[in-house]
Amino acid sequence: MRRCRLVMAVLSSALLLASCDNDVDPKGGDSGDVTSSVIEATGIKLIADKKELKVGETLKLTWEIEPAEAETKTVSFTSSNENVLAVSSEGLLTAKEEGNATIAIKLEGTDKSDSIDFQVIMTKDALLSKLKSILLEGLDHEKEEAMDGTINSSIEFNVYKDSLQINYDANTKVRYYMVGKSLTALSLKPDSVEETTIGVLDEDLSQEQVDNYTKLFSYVYKNNAVFGLSSLLSTVISDSYFFGLEDAKENLKFVSNSENSETTYALTTNYVDASVSYDKRYYENSLSFSINQNGQLTKGSYSIEPFSSVDYDFTNNKKKDGAKATKPDKFAFTISYGERKEEDNETLNRSNYLVQTFDIDTKSWRNKGEGEALLYIGDEVPVEVTNVSPALHLADTYSVESISNSSVIGYNTKGNITYLTAISKGEATVTIINSYLKTSSIKIKVIDVPAQKIEIGVTSLKEIEIDQTAEYKVSVTPIDAADRSFEAAFENEGMSQYATLTLLPESSKFTLKGLKAGKVKVIVKATSNPLITDSIEVVIKAKLDGLEAIKAMLVGATYKNSLNTLTFADKTSGTATIDGGNQYSFDYDVELLSNEYVLVFSNVKSTIQKSTTNVLNEGNGKRLEPNIISNDGKQIKITSTTTSMTLSRAS
């Protein structure tokens, strides 16, 4: 082995000597006396049109190699801070964020290099774009990784594997979850609980919309629902309070600070909003949020504080002493991240609010919720429930499971409501079942419709004469009462000496015939319900003839035609309305003159005088015929200043 290695070494040396002896200058001739033609670079210069760039801006660098004939042309670039200013292998700069960076160029294979210091500045538009980009990335983390959080130190939210719950307080909560393909909200309030369907996946909701509800805290900002706290901040930043109004953007200040693996971004601005000339507002606004090393939004807040002319001096551009913001809008939150858990004891669970027990409510039935359940034949009542357990429960539907005697009780459904119908007399047990198969039973008694009211006609005569017969109409209600018959009798037997009482059941009447002067009281009772009564008192008056009869007939009577009215209050006085407007009070008497009953007015007093053409005159008439009462007392012809008129008895 050693012998082989020695031979190889000798051969290599020989070949090397041969090569040296045969080396040729690239330009021709022997190399022994010829100098190399390679031109070495002595320097390189980096050239830039400007040294200040805006975020998002690009710039192409150029360079010069000295001397220009130098053979080496390959260069490379480096940036001292790629996060601020990136450079490509061709020398293209891209400004990425605010800061300083040094760009260096090096001539490959040499120690020749050059560099330029650059400053990258952030424009307001670039800042907005950057912040929204950060928040957009934060939204992705929030949707997939957020576990829980707090809002304004009082509201809490929890993101579970398949649902999201917001706890506004101990008695006000809402949970969003899927039931099959239906997005459902279970809402708990202090005095109620409700389950509503928001929409159906692949019909009126996309998967993204479902995820928004079940993975992101939602907040109503300016009447619009915003899903995700990252989205909320992005919306507020873009609004007029920061970037959306030129004056707000002009006065905007921005700082960022990194500490404990988190970067906090903060905006402040103050400005006057004069877009509504009659309602100028001065604003002091701030917004901040923190992003951790994983790109997750961990906390944030904003404060919008408007000041009206009451608190701000727009002439001198300063706040007044003791100035207070008008309806400030302040919002703060924190978010925690981690593995999302299954629902726990704190999760709203619909099964806890399903109806377990209930009673059938009879308050709207004939028994008014007291004692045994009672219906009248023909009644139709809704199935309603009471004493429901749990006290806070989801709305439910109730239907008939069974009826022990369907000839007594029937049922029908109208919409979502079940009604029971009383068909015939008897008893039946009805069992009601809800949608969760819980039942309740009740025994119902059905009877004929009883009489509930009895009345003697209001126009019935309360005075009759001896030998006069008067009819009295009696009504028993309701009209569908099974027995509408009645009984009538004097209050006591002694009254039968004054009048004769006769029942006329076929016409629902009774009659009284006067026997002698006196007073009777008739009491009527419903046959089916003797507790239902009515009564009337009737005076039997001695029969009057001639003048006395006419005088008696006037008392309490009213006579009228289309424009005129006479009312006789008592035996000596009355009132009148003449010609539809003139009103009087008067005294009166009746005289028998030339076989005619003449009405004589006295002490006539005008209470309302609207015209002088037709007036009530004192005496028995003037210029024309006297005031004449017909022999039967049913008409009176009176004479005014200019005309005569006939009035008929109305009562």
Protein architecture, described:
The protein has 651 residues and is mostly beta strands. The protein has 5 domains: 43-122, Immunoglobulin-like; 126-337, no CATH class; 354-446, Immunoglobulin-like; 453-541, Sandwich (Immunoglobulin-like); 546-649, no CATH class. It is 12% helix and 47% strand. It contains 6 helices and 49 strands. The chain has an 11-stranded antiparallel sheet with strand order 15-14-13-12-11-10-24-21-20-19-18. A hairpin with a 4-residue loop joins β42 (558-560) and β43 (565-568). The radius of gyration is 54 Å and the shape is elongated. 23% of the residues are buried. Residues 1-34 have low confidence and may be disordered.
Features:
single chain, 651 residues, 5 domains, mainly beta, Immunoglobulin-like, eight-stranded antiparallel beta barrel
The residue fraction in helices comes out at 10-25%
Whole-number tally of structural domains = 5
**What characteristic shape results from the CA principal axes?**
elongated
Low-confidence stretches: 1-34
State the end-to-end distance: 159 Å
Content-based structural category = mainly beta
Largest sheet: 11 strands, antiparallel
